[in-house]
Amino acid sequence: MSDEKTTPLDAEHRALGAVMTGFGGWLMPLRYTSDLAEHRAVRAAAGLFDLSHMGEIHLEGPGAATALDRALVGSAAAIAVGRAKYSMICADDGSVLDDLIVYRLADEHFLVVANAGNAAMVARELTARAAGDDVVVTDRSASTALVAVQGPRAEQIVTSLVAPAAADAVRALRYYAASPAFLQVGDGVEALVARTGYTGEDGFELFVDAADAVALWRALLAAGAGHGLVPAGLAARDSLRLEAGMPLYGHELDTTTTPYEAGLGRVVRLDKTDAAGERLAFVGRDALAARKVSAPARVLVGLRGEGRRSARAGYDVVTRAAGEPGRAGVEAGVKVGVKVGTVTSAAPSPTLGHPIAMAYVTPEVSAEGTELAVDVRGRAEPFVVVPLPFYRRA
């Protein structure tokens, strides 16, 4: 019997014929129909995702902003009410324990959304790091459901369920902003509606009480039926976020990586100060300050495949002689070159029509246009360094 947790929508997924898979300690839908169809639906219309495996940790009290500023690399105090920021929680050595989104719901109330497999650890760390501050830390992951509608028709679908008094406010939400809204679902559902997502498309994430998850899921499927909305699983979510160049914890980010190596140094605020104007230390600050001014050992880059074969996470990135396509493989005597990096995520891109990958490589081969190869089971498959993201919506 599986020890994996299930979300409040587990029966809904099974009724829709979803293929289920383990992810971060949870049993989640991998796909409902096909990875390609679900991916393309999100790019062209809309997809509905169950994200109830994510962690939701609330910090409330006069010391909430200060506690988060001590705990995370970013500045929570600088977040306006109703807005959100991407951040990270790091260890003393500057390595990434998890990447997070921090919402400021009120002056003294923050919501931290953590990755599923790290949620319990993040709750423990925030509690420990907030000791001495006037703040209450509450892990509400088990009582909260989260669903996302992503795609160019997401706004039409979501606002069709929002009570008229709040619909204009939801339409006016900027990217990385959130607003409470009353949804016309059943007898009514209170939700936090955030204009955030992980697909590279416009979209919304809706936080509701776990008891309201099924009613909301069914209402969104019905509201989106005429707009091309389909339920989408983890496989489409992964290929969408890869095209958008978004990191995945356990792939681009982990405890061997700092934000700077991942090209995310912009989220680190080394200059944070307290109410008295004194420099505010946070966990990992000294290590990150040193890392910022040191030469990197590796750099995260995008790779565009020039052939048809895709790489996979963990495959070696190797050198390629100028003009050597590497397509003939070892059978024709083409040898795999010198290892210069490792693929972290890879897939054929449904939107772009060629293989793409993210990889950590040594700095000397990280420039745009550098011709490299990936060792795909002994064959030197050609790739070239390109900027991230691979895809931007119009």
From TrEMBL:
- Read off the SUPFAM superfamilies from this record: Aminomethyltransferase beta-barrel domain, Folate-binding domain
The Aminomethyltransferase C-terminal domain sits at 298-391
Spell out the GO cellular component terms annotated for this protein, sorted alphabetically and separated by semicolons: cytosol; glycine cleavage complex
Q: Which UniProt keywords apply?
A: Aminotransferase, Methyltransferase, Transferase
InterPro entries named in the record:
GcvT, GcvT/YgfZ/DmdA, GcvT/YgfZ_C, GcvT_bac, GcvT_C, GCVT_N, TrmE/GcvT-like
| Pfam families tied to this protein | GCV_T (PF01571), GCV_T_C (PF08669)
- The entry's substrate-binding residues are 205
| EC number, UniProt record | 2.1.2.10
Alphabetized GO MF terms: aminomethyltransferase activity; methyltransferase activity; transaminase activity
Gene3D superfamilies in alphabetical order: Aminomethyltransferase beta-barrel domains, Aminomethyltransferase fragment, Probable tRNA modification gtpase trme, domain 1
Q: Name one GO biological process term.
A: methylation
**Which residue ranges does the record assign to the GCVT N-terminal domain?**
11-272
| Reaction catalyzed | N(6)-[(R)-S(8)-aminomethyldihydrolipoyl]-L-lysyl-[protein] + (6S)-5,6,7,8-tetrahydrofolate = N(6)-[(R)-dihydrolipoyl]-L-lysyl-[protein] + (6R)-5,10-methylene-5,6,7,8-tetrahydrofolate + NH4(+)
Extract the HAMAP family matched here. GcvT
- Can you tell me which family this protein belongs to? Belongs to the GcvT family.
Subunit structure, interactors included: The glycine cleavage system is composed of four proteins: P, T, L and H.
Q: What does this protein do?
A: The glycine cleavage system catalyzes the degradation of glycine.
What name does UniProt use for this protein? Aminomethyltransferase
The opening ranks of the lineage are:
Bacteria, Bacillati, Actinomycetota, Actinomycetes, Micrococcales
**Gene name for this UniProt entry:** gcvT
